[in-house]
Amino acid sequence: MGFITKEQLAERKIQYVGINRDTGEFELSDKSLHPGIEGFLLGFDTHEFEYKGKMQKKFDVYLRDGALYQLQFGFYSWQTFKLMNSLLNVETLGEGGPLLITSGFEKDNFYINIEFDGAKIKWKYSYEDLKLKDLSKEAKEERRNKIIDKWYTDLMKVKPYIPESPVDTDFSDAKEPEDDDKF
User: Fold this and answer.
1) Any idea where the domains of the chain sit in the sequence?
2) Phi and psi at residue 72, in whole multiples of 5°?
3) Could you give the CA distance from residue 106 to residue 111 in angstroms, rounded to a whole number?
4) What is the pLDDT of residues 145-181, one digit of tens each?
C-alpha cells in the first residue's frame, strides 16, 4: 500500500470504446480511431441508460491490456449478433485469454472479426441454421433479438464481469446515437 502514480491511476480507469458510424472502427473517448483492439478477455456485461428520453441498452466486452477497456455495442444490433456468434464458437472462452477484435466496412458491409488466443474464430451458426435467411426485415430483427437474448444468457454463464468502477452513464456531451441496425 502506498502512493500510486498518475499512470497507475490511469490504468484503473475504464477506457470507453464504441464503434464509429462512418468508418466502423473502434473509437475511444478522445475520438481516436482504431481498426482493432486486443487485450486479455475479462468478461461480459450490459448497462442501460436514458439518453434524450429514450432508454439505451449496451452489450459490454471487457478487455485488459495495461488499461481496462469497456467495448460498448448496441445490444439489439447486427454488430452484437455477429460478435456473439463468433464468441460462442470459442471453446475455452471461460478461461479468458488474448482476444483481438477488428471491425470496419468492406464495400458498405460492416464486418467484425475475432481471434482468440491467436486463432481466427468463425461464426458458430449460419443464417440458415438460425432460420433468418428468408424472413422480412421486421421478422428477421425480431428473431435476431430473441437470439441475442439467448446468446447473452449463454455468455454470462461462461464469463460474466462486473467492473470495480461503476459504468459512466453521464452522456450529456455525447452525440445522439444512431440506429444500430445500420450495420
Assistant:
1) 6-167
2) -115, 125
3) 7
4) 999 999 999 999 999 998 875 544 444 444 444 555 5
